[in-house]
């Protein structure tokens, strides 16, 4: 059975859209997934599930909508996909602190001809396919808000994790 990391977008941040991790584990168990564990409080889980990643993410989104009454976007990613995101980071040489190196996964394709978030900080932001990398040497809150830019300019949602979290997810996938 394939192992996945599940990334929930926009939960438990700033007191918004609360999804207690114990309830997330229950929900995933109820969907028949096995070896379920959550990491941190920001919507990360690992588990084994039959089926392709897109179907797993859709099932979790539907279960979350039923339970909480709001849309919560999800991505299910394999260990290989997470590792490829780490390995493909064009800004990796800048990072001396994994908590300040961020990778974001787009929930849709990048539009052609639209302004790029790289324009916000060309030395510290890079787009590679469906991934957006950002180096935040002064902290995330003191760096350009790439997610807001993507929502406004590209009309695409993104969920992001720092390098330390991605490394923990890679190691924790069953």
From TrEMBL:
Signal peptide: none annotated. It comes from the Bacteria. Pfam families: DUF1697. PANTHER family: BLL4334 PROTEIN (PTHR36439), DUF1697 DOMAIN-CONTAINING PROTEIN (PTHR36439:SF1). This is DUF1697 domain-containing protein. It comes from Pseudonocardia xishanensis.
């Amino acid at each position: 059975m394939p192992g996945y990391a599940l990334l929930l977008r926009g939960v438990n941040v700033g007191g918004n859209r609360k999804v207690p991790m114990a309830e997330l584990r229950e929900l995933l168990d109820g969907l028949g997934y096995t070896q379920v564990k959550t990491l941190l409080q920001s919507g990360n889980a690992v588990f084994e599930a039959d089926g392709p990643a897109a179907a797993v993410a859709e099932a979790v989104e539907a279960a979350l909508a039923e339970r909480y009454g709001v849309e919560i976007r999800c991505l299910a990613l394999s260990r290989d996909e997470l590792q490829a995101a780490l390995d493909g980071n064009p800004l990796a040489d800048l990072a001396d602190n994994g908590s300040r190196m961020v990778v974001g996964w787009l929930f849709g394709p990048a539009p052609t001809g639209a302004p790029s978030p790289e324009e916000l900080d060309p030395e510290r932001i890079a787009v590679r396919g469906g991934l957006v990398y950002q180096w935040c040497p002064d902290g995330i809150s003191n760096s350009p808000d790439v997610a807001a830019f993507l929502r406004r300019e590209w009309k695409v949602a993104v969920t992001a994790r720092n390098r330390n979290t991605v490394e923990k997810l890679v190691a924790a996938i069953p």
